[in-house]
Structures are given as structure tokens and as C-alpha cells.
Amino acid sequence: MVTEKLYVLCILSVLQKYSDSDHILTTKDIIQKLKAEYDISVDRRTIYRNVGHLVDFGYDISTHEDNGVGYYLRERDFETSEIRLLADSVLTADFIPEKEGQALIRKLQQLGSVHQTKPLKRLSSIKMNRKRPNKEIFYNIEVLDEAIIKERQVEFEYAMFDMTLKQVPKREEKYVVSPYALYWSNNQYYLISNMAPLEGITHFRLDRIKKIVLTGTRAKPLDKSFDLNDYVKKALFMFGGPAETFTIRCDKTILNDVIDRFGDNIIIVDSDESTFTTIIKATSQGMRLWAMHYFDTCRVLAPEWLVQDMRNALQENLKKYI
User: Residue 28: which domain range?
Assistant: First the structure.
């Protein structure tokens, strides 16, 4: 049973759920909502008094004195456009299982009024076509966040698909790594870490991590000069390894693609009516894959090893179609 002490919370809930600048609630509206939602009966003075308490506490509520109609919650933690952006991100994130993704979208709906988040109802029922989701994904995130904060290693199984389309451990021995950061790239969520005795950075997709355990072993310290954003920008397709310098000549038609991938501070050293030449930094395997992807609109000029590697790869692949 709702007691009088809880009326203020019930009124706040009604304002959060049903009011916005386009849907102002009169005192009568609030009284009716309280009866329908919580089966409580209040008078107008109760509404005035408790709204005053909410305003005194810091809630930005527009009143009849401001708008001449009634009450609405003027400021929220998230704008409608921000909620929609978050919901679309959940919908398109391949690593989030369908059931959990739909539940997340329903939770996002609670951040705005029912009127503001009405378009999200359609999103929460869309099939996401994820037949074999990793149910451990959110638990993995919790464990890894704790490990990063406490600077501890984690161990886990890393799953891959076999020819029967079942997920099986990639190897019998569990992986033991020092976790540094979680990063969303190429529509997937990655763990950026170090795996002893290897040097440098290794990547693991969170949706393939299973049976993760936080260990008591201290993680290998991350070099203080390490810049996560700079590293990820150069780690094309999340291939690890040291960054190298590459010179490429591209059609102007993919200039925006190059900027999207390498940033707007690329160095353009030459250009003509149809092409431009730029110098960028990236990991070698990532750059090779990127160059193959854009082989019809991009040509690698340097270093020579990649030029020769691209030539050999194209010749070998051409044979498959002869």
C-alpha cells in the first residue's frame, strides 16, 4: 500500500512517464494518473505541496505559473535524440544478444516520457537475427571492468566456429591476459590486452570470450605513453602489431572513406583532377586488408614489401576466376 510519505515519488514518476513540453499535465490529469497507476486518491493541495518539494530538491519542473496550463518535467538526463541514438546503437551492435538487446531498448524508453519514446516501441520488437548469441557478454563486461580497475589478469576460453557451425574453444589451454581497455570498433566490442609471453597488444572479441575468471595475479602494467584512441585508429580491422607508415594513391571518390578511417589530419602530399596521394600510419595486416578491400580505387605506393605482396595476392586470386 502506498503511504502519504511516498506520494512525492508517485507524482515524480507520473511526471517522468507522461509529461514533456508538448504534453503538459493539469492538476486533474495528475490526480487521474495517480489513481490509475497507484490506486491513490489525492486532492489539489497535495499536488501543489509535493511538486513544490520536488522543485526545492532540484527537479526542473515547469508549473502553471510558467506555462499557464499545468506541470511538466522540463529537463531530463537525456534528450529524445540521444535516447534514439543509444537505442539504434543497441539495435545494430552485433555482440548484443537479441533478447538482451530488446530489454535494453525497453529500459532506454524509461529515460523519456511515453510520448517522446513512442518510436522506440517498434525497435524493441525488431528481430536482430543473432542465432548464436553469447549470453555471457554482460557478465564479461562486468568482470573485465573490475579487472581493469584492480589491475588484475583474467583467464577465459576463446570460442570459434567449427565446420558444423558450433562454437568450440579455439585451444585447450585457457587464455591468460592483462586487460587494459574495452573498445567498440567495426560494430564489435573488443578487449585490448597483453598476453604473456608476447609483447605488445592483443585483441579479443567479447562475444567470443567464455567462462571468464578474475585471477589474483597482477596485470602487466601498460606503458604510460600508450594512447588508446591513437592505437585503435591505426589498428585497422583490429589487427594488432606496431604501426608502420604507408603511402597510398586513391581516387578522390573515396576521400571521405579515407578520412573516416584514418582521421581528418591525414597528410595529402599530392593530388590531381581524379586522385590524391596520402601518407598514413596503420598496422601492417590491417593495412593489407584495407588495401585489398579498396583495390579498385586505391594503390599502395610504399613500402615496397606491401606493393609486392598486393601484386602477388591479386595474381593468385585472379587464377580463381580463370
Answer: 4-73
